[in-house]
Amino acid sequence: MLPFVVAGGIFIAIAFLIDIACGVNAQEVGSAFGTVTPAAAWFKTLGGVAFNLMVPILSGFIAMSIADRPGLLVGLVGGFLATSGATFMDPAAAETVPSGFLGGLLAGFVGGYLMLGIEKMCDKMPKALEGIKPVLIYPLLGLGGILVVMCAVNPFMGMINSGMSNGLNAIASNPAMMVPLCALLAGMMSIDMGGPFNKAAYAFATLNLANADDQAYIIMAAVMIGGMVPPIAIALSNTFFKNRWTDEERKNAPVNYVMGLSFITEGAIPYAAGHPLQVIPSCIVGSAVAGALSALFGCKLMAPHGGIFVFPVVDHALLYLVALAIGSIADTRTMGRISAKTLFWFLLCSFLALLLAGVVGYTTYSMGLFNTHIEGLTEATGSTGSNPLNVVLNIIPSNIVTAFGSNGAVLSAVFLAVATGLSMNTLGESRTATLRRLLGEVNDVVVVFLNFIVSNFAPFAVFVLLTRTFAIYGIDYLKPALVYVVVTVVLLLAFLIIAYPLVIALGAKLDPFTFIRKIANVAVFGFSTSSSAATLPLNIKVCEEEFGVDESIASFVLPLGMTINMDGTAIMQVVATVFIAGCAGYTVTPAQLVVVALLALLASVGTPAAPGAGAVILFTILSGAGFVNDSALLAYSLILAINRPIEMLVTSLNVVGDAVASICVAKSEGLLNEKKFNA
Fold first, then answer.
1. pLDDT in tens, 29-64
2. What CA–CA distance (Å, rounded) separates 411 from 564?
3. What's the CA gap between 664 and 53, in Å, rounded?
4. Structural domain boundaries of the chain?
């Protein structure tokens, strides 16, 4: 099947190039792009023929692998019926929806086992008829059987398509659902890569172009980027994780870069057929991420096809490329197995933490316990008037030097650090040994300096700030501040004592009480030092010696978790943001709370493993959410003053969360010594 995909994809890409070279405007010609000039139409036709044969060939060879040569004919015809969409009522498939790639897979397996059954039934026929079995009896019975099966299957595909179209129209009627809708549509492009789900998403987007409005253009951009992700993700995986693919798959993978950039989703079909359980879910996730980011960035596309060739007419083309890159990398198959599992447990615990913090914080706010009023200060109601997406957009700096010179560019610094780390890993440890040692020593110096400043000068600064606040504005903030402290502490303790043991019990199927007993020393040490970095050596030692986590898992998960897995920080920042918004007179809605939770997740990733860093990074969330009036800044200063005990408990939560992830990953990989754990 790969030669059909490779050759067909290249011919279609050449057709696009020819039209572009001849001055064809993709936006104006729409779906005719690639066929406007005679030469382009010639290449597009040949490429299309190769692609049309792809699913029948897939079905034919699946059937042949099951029933040998008698299965080839039945599989080929079944695959053709799947692509044509033939039904009993409409055998010419004039108005039906093809079942596509998934239908082709079904046709291959059904055709193969159907032929095996027919051969078994014909075993008792007279020997005089032996010669006509393979040329007459088998083909007639097999074709009749596969025709019945596919004409019965295809109508259901059409019903699915109609139902999806109606559902999509209902979602599109609510402008607030634009981002989830774009994520859904982009994900649908990867489900069957040419089947009813793919067709429904693409048809919905192209039909909406007739409305000629921003919503239609945003949807079209999301759909196209969703179709571009699978081939590019496959190519990336074959480039960086070669041991996961066969020699033939690796040799043909580079062509997927071309097909992905040309919006030819079908390039991923051979790989999806060979590894369906791994490839298809991963591609769906990657496409959905890319589609959501495209919508968040406000990317618009007026052309229904063309891939990278129409990027010049995309609004926010650079951000569109960023969304494509992130979506392609988000394909979990491009990650190592341990990396993917680690990320899963980090995100699961973070989601639970943010959900709990959001529910409790909003409930407390709704009860009016965070509300106060200070005379002479600016208050706000309703919308903040700020675009929280600016925080996301500003992650990628326009100037590398200034990113490290701005106090508000924490996430930009994190982005640059990750990019540098990936580049260093690509070069190898031998070529970057000096740089690694230098960066490690610089980090040690910075941490020592921060610890000195925070420990020795921060208390005096906070005392002066707090004294000035209460001297000028009175003590009206004390009651809501006390509520904030109580709510945050109770949430952190509940997550520490209840949520983490439940994850251990349900996720790793281990004794939660044993976990609580052994992790206590790590939690206490983290509380006393208020530093994840200082607690890391003890955490590694306990995980390896007390819990039986393999060294390879502990040495990877725990240092990574110290940097990006901060459940306690996320909880504190969500509750603190809601507290500040309430004190400042802002109206907080559930939708705004979701945005705050996402910003808290991003900000927690960029929080340094140093004492008091969480409260400092909190200002990033406030800026992104637009909570920046005088009263908000005053409430923020109060947070800085009273947050030290909370930061200590936050650190305990962060380090315990890292240990939980390492145990769950080790258990799933068979690298956990349960005798040590239960000792």
1. 666 767 888 888 888 888 778 767 877 887 888 888
2. 12
3. 45
4. 37-168, 174-335, 363-678
The whole-angstrom separation of Cα 612 and Cα 641 is 11
Neighbours of 159 (CB within 10 A): 12
Residue 47 CA to residue 5 CA, distance in Å, equals 9
Classify residue 27 as exposed, middle or buried by CB count within 10 Å of its CB (0-12, 13-18, 19+).
middle
Tell me how far apart the alpha carbons of residues 228 and 233 are, in angstroms, rounded to a whole number.
Answer: 9
Tokens of 545: 């010696």
Contact 404, 413 (CB under 8 A): yes
Residue pLDDT, tens place only, 253-295: 787 787 888 787 877 888 887 777 667 877 888 888 888 888 8
In this predicted model, what pLDDT tens digit does every residue of 58-99 receive, in sequence order? 788 888 888 888 888 888 888 888 877 777 766 665 556 676
Residue 530 near residue 610, CB atoms below 8 Å: no
What pLDDT is attached to residue 63? 86
Tell me how far apart the alpha carbons of residues 628 and 631 are, in angstroms, rounded to a whole number.
8
Where do the H-state alpha helices sit in 1-37?
A: 2-21, 26-29
Which three-class secondary structure state does DSSP give residue 443?
A: helix
- Residues 20, 311: Cα–Cα separation, whole Å: 12
Q: What is the DSSP string of 42-91?
A: HHHHHHHHHHHHHHHHHHHHHHHHHHSTHHHHHHHHHHHHHHHT--SS-T
Is the separation of the CB atoms in 325 and 261 below 8 Å?
Answer: no
Kindly give the residue spans of alpha helices, DSSP state H, lying in 245-331: 247-252, 255-261, 269-274, 276-296, 317-330
3-state SS class at 606 = coil
- Per-chain mean pLDDT for the chain: 76
Q: pLDDT digits over 378-416, tens only?
A: 444 444 444 444 555 566 676 766 666 665 555 566 667
| Neighbour-count burial for 453-492, b at 16+ CB within 10 Å, e otherwise | ebeeebeeebeeebeebeeebeeebeebbebbbebbeebb
User: Are 59 and 113 a contacting pair, CB within 8 Å?
Assistant: no
Pick the CATH number of 363-678 from 1.10.3860.10, 3.30.379.10, 1.10.940.10, 1.10.10.10: 1.10.3860.10
